[in-house]
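Practice problem: predict the structure.
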Amino acid sequence: MREITSEDELRALLGEPAPAALAKERTALADIDREWLAASPFCLIATSGADGSCDVSPKGDPPGFTLVLDERTIAIPERAGNRRADGYRNILANPHVGLVHLLPGRTDTLRINGRARLVTEPSLLDRMVVKGHRPVLAVVVEIEQVFHHCGKAFLRSQLWDPESWRPEAVPSRARIAHALERKHEPLEELERYYSSATYSAGLYPTS
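Answer:
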């Protein structure tokens, strides 16, 4: 395959960014950014390890789960998960992170880049209790870049258009687990597990 190997080649192909695209980058949160974070129930956190390996982890909670500590600092709680901690291990080796905060139904997004720390400060975690669940840690991000991103990718993909949704296009989560991850467990048990109240209850364990 023909490959681009230099920034000069890349710029010759794509052209230079418009002045407005460069000027929109800021180093601190504006009031509208705070409003966006207060309304957003979901974000993606991108990290990279010391060896350059990358990870993108989804984080979701009720709207406003991302706390604004000041105009240059935000915090995101860690909820129950699979305990792989890929992104967190990356942060320990390389603190640079990239975040995309989404609002359901909106095609534009809020992007934040900065440096992250893993924090267990009790007074902070106490502010992040949801349904009786207190997170075991929080990702505190010192903002270096913040800007709003246009919605072209969401419009092209029709992400929020229900008429384009086809959840049945691929096997269910239970069938995927049975085929790839938990082959020795009966499919029926996996289907009950992923559809049960127990699975939902595990979103916010209190013990």
